[in-house]
Amino acid sequence: MKNTEIIEILDNIAVLLELKGESIFKSRAYQKAARSIEFLSEEVDKLVSEERLKEIPGVGDAIAQKLTELVSTGHLDYYEKLKAEFPPGINILMEVPGIGPRTALLLTKELGIADIDSLEKAIENGQVAELPRMGEKTAQNILRQIKAYRKKKGEQRVPVSTALTAAEILMEEMHAIAGIRHLSPAGSLRRFRDTIGDIDLIGTADNPEEAIEAFIQLPSINELQEKGPTKASVIINNGLQVDLRLLSNDAFGSALQYFTGSKQHNIELRTRAARLGLSLSEYGITDIVTGQLETYISEEAFYKRQGLEYIPPEIREGLHEIELAEQSKLPHLIELSDIKGDLHLHSDWSDGAAPLEEMIAGALEQGYEYVAVTDHSPGLGIAHGLSIDRIQQQLQLISELNRKYSDIHIFSGMEVDIRANGALDVPDEVLAKLDIVIASIHSGMNQGIDQMTKRVISAVSNPHVDILGHPTGRLLGEREAVEIDIEAVFKAALDHQTVLEINATPSRLDLKDTHIYQARQLGIKLVINTDSHHPEQFNFMRYGIGIARRGWCEARDILNTLPLAKFKASLKS
Length: 573
Hints:
Elements: H1 3-20, H2 24-38, H3 44-49, H4 61-73, H5 77-84, H6 90-93, H7 101-111, H8 116-124, H9 135-155, E1 158-159, H10 160-174, E2 180-186, H11 187-190, E3 195-196, E4 199-205, H12 208-215, E5 221-227, E6 231-236, E7 241-247, H13 252-260, H14 263-275, E8 278-281, E9 284-287, E10 293-294, H15 299-305, H16 321-326, E11 341-345, H17 356-365, E12 370-373, H18 388-404, E13 409-417, H19 428-431, E14 436-440, H20 449-460, E15 467-468, H21 486-495, E16 499-503, H22 513-522, E17 526-529, H23 541-550, H24 564-570
Helix pairs in contact: 1-2, 13-15, 20-21, 22-23
């Protein structure tokens, strides 16, 4: 049994225990075990066989026994009995964003709803609106989420991180194939779209037909869809489709550009080239008058031949990148190496999976000059938020750690929950003691646009709030962004000099690319944070960089590219 399956079962147990009214600590134990397994570099079945389950943080005797049963038999009696205590369909309903455990239980108990089609009908005939604590507005919001859920299910898109990891594993296997010389992702993956439908790979080979035969035999390949002498379509182990095309070595640059797209970028590029007497294709550039084909091994040379500066893949969307490339005025997009610190991390003081010193060690491994410790505030009970007393204790620890470490500065901070009425759940006099305060929404996601906008602006306007965390609350493939007047929020952020976060967690990537572009155009400062709950998650920064590049960000747009002294000077008083 794979770790992902085990994590899903543990999370389901936690939800069912909460519905049952069991102790919150019991439910949290299963959540903590699930999060710890999520960060494991080994499979749980290996730890079971080697009797090393107790090495997993949060796994005691009871959970270890259940994991052993689950891995050994593929079945967990405790879980099956727990599920039997509830009406069927709860887990199905909870797949719809915005439907939590209690709402799912209400729908199944009161209306006998066990699937999404029945739920949609019950909303349309008014039954859901008549339920206690529901109403027409809530019912219509659920209906909107159902439509978004169906659309996403139909597209079968995955977060860019999932596709990129799969592509990198596959390409690593491909490097062992004799004659493969160049290899790169193309399409929306290379342009770093936040979600990906399938993976395009472009490469060159001395003998493409032999390379294709070797490719379809690789361990990552699950099913062959189509095969030709220079291309193949396959389904890999995680269910994604991969389309591979192999060309001659001297055509790699033009082929990579052609298959990277976007469609609109390529249309504008071809239209412009025609005015210059040129014809573009995956094989190179043809002089229309002479019919002579010129081949290009690099994209840089391909663009230069057309009198253009090299255009980074992330901004090839048909905006105005070609016009700027003509004038050599493209932005110098931010690089991973520009980042000097991470301002959003959680330790085991709240819902993190590692002690604070391990998180600091992880930041040091990244070469960072500074980090901010931003464990959750007390209002987020499920995340074991810090009480006022524990905030004071953590402040003392951070002071001690700053004396201990000379190579990195540790800012005190907190991720403070924005309540439904816009108030923060920590008093101003406590927030004033912290170096960095991130305000975020974690509940009440279904408020109307006016109420949600007022709520967020209230937090942004607080003089102690430095950063608005994951501003729209979206979870890719799981939860739609909240309904909010983003332009009004941007104006408030600008007026109050509040920084907006680009949250690099793969399931968030929030702000999204278009909002990032808007914010930087307005002159709003941004930060890219990983929201790390484990040292390994500092590597999420690459995803934040990718989405920031799609938003045309340069290093100067991102505050945490500043060296320590300049960053300190930039903080709001």
